[in-house]
Amino acid sequence: MADLHFQSALAHRSMPDNTSISMREISERGMIDLRGLTTDKKFVAAAKAALGVELPKVPRTSTTFGDVQVLWLSTDQWLVLTGRARVTALLADLRKALGTIHSLAVDVSDMRAIIRLEGDGVRETLMKGSTLDLISDDYAPGTVRRMRFAEIAALLHVVEQNMIDIYVFRSYADYAWEFLVKSARRGSEVKLFPNLIKD
Amino acid sequence: MASKPYRLAQGGSLIDRSRKVTFSFDGKDVSGFAGDTLASAVLASGQKIFGRSFKYHRPRGLVGLGSEEMNALIGVGQGNKHEPNLRATQIEIFDGLSAESQNRWPSLKYDIGAINSKFSRFLPGGFYYKTFMWPRSFWKHVYEPFIRKAAGLGKAPEGRDTDTYEHMHIHADVIVVGAGIAGLAAAEAAALAGAKVLLCDENPVLGGIADLTAGMIDGECVEDYAKALAARLSAMPNVHVLSRTTVVGHFHQNYLMAFERVGDHDPLILASGAPKHRLWKIRAHHVIVATGALERPIAFANNDRPNIMLASAVRGMIGRYGVTPGNTGIVFTNNDDAYLTAFALKKAGINVRVVDSRSRSDGALVKRAIADGIDVSLGSVISAVEGTLEVKAVKIAAYRKGQGRVITERRVECDFIAMSGGWNPALHLWCHNGGKIQFDDGLQSFRPQSHTDAITAIGAANGTMSVADTLVEAQVAGEAAAKSVLKKAKTIKATKFKIEEPIRGALESMWFAPATGLYNEGNKHFIDFQNDVTAADLELAQREGYESIEHTKRYTTFGMATDQGKTSNVNGLGVLSEATGKTIPEIGTTTFRPPYTPYSFGSIAGAHTGALFLPIRQTPIFNWHKSHGATFEPVGQWRRAYTYSQVGEDKHASITREILCVRNKVGMLDASTLGKIEIKGPDAAEFLDRMYTNTFSTLKVGRCRYGLMMNELGFLTDDGVTVRLADDHFLMHTTSGGADRIAAWLEEWLQTEWTHYKVFVTPVTEQWAQFAVAGPKARDVLAKLDPDFDLSSEALPHMSFSQGHIGGYPIRIYRISFSGELSYEVATPANFGQGLWNAIMEAGEEFDLTAYGTEALHVLRAEKGYIVIGDETDGTTTPIDVGMDGMVSKKKPDFIGKRSLEQSFLKGPNRKQLVGLLTEEPNDVLPDGAYAVRVLKDKPPMEMIGQVTSTYMSPTLGRSIAMALIENGRDRMGEVLSFPLEGGKVMKATITGTVFYDKDGARING
């Protein structure tokens, strides 16, 4: 297995040197798409047993336990994040725990590309392509939100105040990267409510 | 005269006399000072003409001070950086700026098109519709091109724009549009009450026309008060200020759009990486319209001559830039406000006299003017202007309101005129989304009345003209806006202002000043300067029966173009009112439409240019395709490899090579774009039985089945192979373009109709890279890669599925074929895609494995008669039409579209049916979409009985093949059809079955 050629969506792209924020692809993260009904207590319990953490039920939130993080996607869908190396084992655990319970867990580690944006101005950079009010208190760290970004579907995960992960479907990765490089170009920074001091 | 006769020795609040700036205008170097606009600098240089008018090519000068300017439209920049139709009054000059005037040839002073003016009696209002209508063909080929060339604004830039543009979104509790004293005060009140406030103003400097306004606030002049207020606001944490930003439109739910000129005024800003323009998309809970008012011109004879300006513009030129239009001026007014201009002129040492159409005024400013010794002619109008390229003299006639003819007049020499017909509240934003307006007798103009949105108009935009009333109104509005939005807004203490301002006399409407000589013989009264519409044109339209103001607008072009009637609207209504005897409110207004001022196409495109023009989807193998000579074709947003042309090979040659390689050896296709949907749950099989025409509940685990999907109308909408992974678990393949649509379609039925079904649907298209390895040697290639599963036909027969590893890569493998050859589709997680592709390529080298693109794929499938949804179907095609009756279940109780297939017209005779076609001439390839006719005639019309759906040159068969939907096609086997083509050519083709190659299907078994 050692000689397998692994090539992430943005492997051919290098870190831009003319942006006001830092941008990099996170390729080492594994992802599992989990479907199930929160009205089914057995499902909720089995998921928690396998993942070690409660599934977030409040829209746009996430939960974390160790190296497992669960992002709320919709009322019956979650994205489970963990290290790429652990996905196979975790998926097996999950399927075992779920057994015949009505559910669907799929390895989608390669389905999306993740771009980590970091630095002063990440929120404004994203607002060049999104209608969301990312500078409001609604987008505190931990927030997850599916959004339309630069005319494509994307998933937003606020990691820290100035650190945001953007998930886009793999085929759009190059386009999204290009849009971000252009929008984060030095000299084009926009500071919204510039006198506002955020803690 | 001195070298710079029009730059005053002192004054100019916006200019920095220590910094000289040189730019080029019409090829000549002009110098001004930092802070000058192109308008002020050119006027200071002594030039009065800025452009030629739209229709008559009359020489025109400045009229306004800011965005209301309608004459001085200027093109800025060269070649691909050229931007036409900018208002000279808004262009801030910088060293190296290159600008030119428009609509003139060869020069502003000598313009050939001005001959239109001599023939103006033949170009009356509505001339487009009256003239040039005969002979009919002349309109398109002779008249229209000529008119287009003769009448026009600027020219479009040449070449690709290299500047960048972008969009930006912002949310605010309250947006205040306009940063005059009203807007500033309202913004401060809203911000102090706790609201997040966005303040936008189109000018570089906040304050509006505070500097042109009379009065004292708490002992400070209005200008200083506004300055201090602007500084306070700019420092507040909950305020965002955007200058050089025009709010161009107000739309539903308080969504607004604003156009920011980021780098137009300073090339250094552009060079630092900033976008040239930024389009702001604003969402606000409450909108405060503080857009001020626009001064009205007066309709007097030849009121369009260069150096006839609005009184406020003259005042602004002196105060802001230290520039005077001339040495002897006349202020022509019907209101008190213009007297401020007279004072400014007098103070600057310019000779001035006032002509006031009112017979009396009790206003303080009028009394002061008389006391100061300014010559004030009450009850008078300007009845004639002498001079064409500049004003030389005027005639002043005695006047009483309503008087239509000149009785007595006298000649007075002057070199400029400052006119004021009153002020119109700038209602555009208020009205964009349906705000109602009412006529105000005091203003003789419209003002806001009611609105269904959360929006408030204040200050001059609301018809409130005094400083004292404006400040109170603004504070109340700002606080109320904050309170309407926030749960916990602070109550702010109302400020007690001490305000001194002159008591004003009443304005008296004056829609038409009587003229010397015959009306409209060489003395036009312009209403809409930009479109060359005169009072006479409006009256003519009226006489010709255009009673509705909206019809008059379209007939005369009054209120159109970039100006959108800013200065002309109410004056036009006034003329029509006098012509018809109706009141202005009875006539009504035309519709105010966005944008308030034009904004650039670049800003509309934003970042979406070049590679970002459209979102593009790439498969994991995209870069390999690119580096191996692939040309691409769009499939939805995907870019799929079309064919791989090698050096010295054209596309036709490479497609032929790829096809023959698949037929004779082995080829590989990147099929990653195929839609893939995992479907799981105890009801999954039954659910699929309902979605497809054929049955899936009988499919064995590990096997594949081709399915046809209809919509409720019985028409084909998708097809593809579905695999049973486990008893309750399926993997559905959809067409590449249908992946998202079908996933949504499945969800819709589960969520809205069959909510009792326990089924989950998860699209996984992008998780997998998937390749078709097809051809007689396909198994041999894969066998070389150490598969850890049995590849034999016994273990993995046609339409079966397995999983394991090949070349070490984890894979799912499907024995399915879209080429008719022995074929496997191999799927691996996308990030292993390129690795597996390389491994297969390497393993296939000894078998001459070649990559093939989508065109080869299409020819291969057409040779086998396989349909493509969207080619052989057009949204009105049933499974029976394409000959797939056998796939429509007779046993299943129900499935989507079943009922529709029973409708008489879908069951009836004369449906178009899918057939094959072989042209009489084997090398003739029928054009895609060519029509077959029932009876061939010499020329159309001919009755059409069907059309070609797929057509190719088949290298396998060495001749052309085609498929077509033909009326009763299956009953016409052997019949020869005629296909008349463009240019009189006719192709003839024989109807055949749809399978052209390997009719018994033996090759698929390898």
CATH architecture call of the largest domain in chain B: 2-Layer Sandwich
**At CATH's second level, what is the architecture of the largest domain in chain A?**
2-Layer Sandwich
Quaternary state reads heterodimer
% residues in beta strands of chain B: 25-35%
Query: What letter string, H or E per element, gives the SSE order of chain A?
Result: EEHEEEHEEHEEEH
Catalogue the unreliable spans of chain B: none
Q: Describe the global form of chain A.
A: globular
What structural category do the secondary elements of chain A indicate?
A: alpha+beta
Class inferred from helices and paired strands of chain B: alpha+beta
Characterize the biggest β-sheet of chain B.
Answer: 7 strands, mixed
Strand fraction of chain A equals 25-35%
CATH class of the largest domain in chain A: Alpha Beta
What does the average pLDDT of chain B come to? 93
Radius of gyration of chain B: 38 Å
Report the strand count of chain A.
10
Strand order in the sheet with the most strands of chain A: 1-7-10-9-8
Shape of chain B: elongated
User: What's the helical proportion of residues of chain B?
Assistant: 10-25%
Q: What would the CATH topology of the largest domain in chain A be?
A: Gyrase A, domain 2
How far apart, in Å, are the first and last alpha carbons of chain B?
A: 100 Å
Describe what this molecule looks like in 3D.
The complex is a heterodimer of chains A (199) and B (1006). With 199 residues, chain A is an alpha+beta fold. Chain A has two domains: 22-27 and 111-183, 2-Layer Sandwich (Gyrase A, domain 2), CATH 3.30.1360.120; 29-107, Alpha-Beta Plaits (2-Layer Sandwich), CATH 3.30.70. Helices cover 20% and strands 33% of the residues of chain A. In chain A, a hairpin with a 2-residue loop joins β4 (68-74) and β5 (77-83). The longest helix of chain A is centred in the middle third of the chain and has 12 residues, at 87-98. Chain A is globular and about 55 Å long. Chain B is an alpha+beta fold and 1006 residues long. Chain B folds into five domains: 1-159, 2Fe-2S iron-sulphur cluster binding domain, sarcosine oxidase, alpha subunit, N-terminal domain (Ubiquitin-like (UB roll)), CATH 3.10.20; 168-293 and 425-485, FAD/NAD(P)-binding domain (3-Layer(bba) Sandwich); 315-421 and 508-516, FAD/NAD(P)-binding domain (3-Layer(bba) Sandwich); 614-898, 2-Layer Sandwich (Gyrase A, domain 2); 909-1005, Aminomethyltransferase beta-barrel domains (Elongation Factor Tu (Ef-tu), domain 3), CATH 2.40.30. In chain B, 22% of the residues lie in helices and 28% in strands. Chain B contains 25 helices and 50 strands. In chain B, the strands form 13 sheets. In chain B, strands 8, 9, 12, 13, 14, 15 and 28 form a seven-stranded mixed beta sheet that branches. In chain B, α13 packs across α15 and α19 (651-664) packs across α24 (854-863). The N and C termini of chain B lie far apart (100 Å). The mean pLDDT of chain B is 93. Chains A and B meet through β2, β6 and α4 of A and β8, β15 and α23 of B.
